[in-house]
Amino acid sequence: MSPFEIGLTSFGAMVVMVYLGFWVPFALMLSSFVGVWVIKGSPILAGKLLALAASETISSYFFGVVPLFIMMGFIVSVTGMGRDAFDVANHMFRRVRGGLGFGTVGANAIFAAITGISIASAAVFTRIAVPEMRRHGYSKRFSVGVVAGSSVLGMLIPPSLLLILYGLLTEQSVGDLFIAGVLPGLLLAFVFCLGIFLVALFKPKLIGEGITDPYDDADALTTQEVLAKGLPIAALIGLVLGGIYGGFFTPIEAGAIGCSGAIIIGLLRRALTLKDFWEVLTDTGLITAAISFLIIAAQMYSRMLALSGVPAGFGNFVATAEIGYWGVILAYVLLVILMGTILDSSSIMLILVPLMLPVLALLQVDLIWFGIITIIAVEIGLLTPPFGISVFVIKSSLDDPSITLGDIFYGAAPFAVLMLVVLGLVLAFPQLATALL
Fold this sequence. Notes:
437 residues
């Protein structure tokens, strides 16, 4: 067998293992090791090459951004800032019909700007927003759907864990990716709110029967309460993102400063105990270890593909197939969305992005814009059956057994459609991702 055929066989074996339920990093590592072994004819050489790929990946200075932003997100979560964001957002939209839906989207957007993890947003706001919406007459499908839909903002609005991962895979500036995610993230939040407003205006029964305004004037927050709840969040967002965009410090330094700021805020509010902090450190270690395995496996997989010549062969095939620039981009987007039905976001990126890089170089694609396209397409998979990881997180976080997985998928479907609309807009108008660069 030629190296090209070996590479294709390894790729196929990896896909089969994933479909059979193997842990994705294990499937990537095993197929990579066996592929390099067969290409080079030596298991020892294969082991050394892949060990070198692993050490180079984790020893990179830029990898330090991962545990820092994960830790900041967990600290924000345990100190109750998610509840504060929800309260402030609901206060702002208290007079709007469907205002709790607006408030949930707004709170998720605020929460996303200091956590960057969609699953964390889904878990936090399932416990906060769903009971509140149900109490005020919102339907169960709408209540869980708006939480599922708006939770994806956590992976687009910076600081985003997926943008960090994409930057590591493609060797692009994480700071530039963060800046590029701002406008598409805000646009997605706006489109979600517009969709809720139109449904509340023309099809109110889809939102719920007998909806009451979440607050009357007597229950509205006072100015002091708004400031007390909103200022710490605004300060942390301004510290982290303002520092990055203003050029005062790098994304890694921003992660460290953000962690310190979140700890100080938690201590001042007396909301961060020693037990909470230990749990934050433990969870940060577990998540970081899982991501480390994913990135190591991706680098091994990339090395195997490079040795086999599959990416170069794939690039030549695309160049001679005459499907054109947009044919390649649209085919890629469709493949990402389809893979989202069976795989998680990180795994899709780890499998497809290394394969696409030579093709993108050949087509001279802007990798920053392509990264935003990838994130939006990947995040649609969080809401689509049968995998839909955000849906399963919401189900596991619910205290209401009457709400089924089917209800959550049905409720999330309109938000997946709205994400497709935003994806189309960013495809048609690349300036939405690059205007601030």
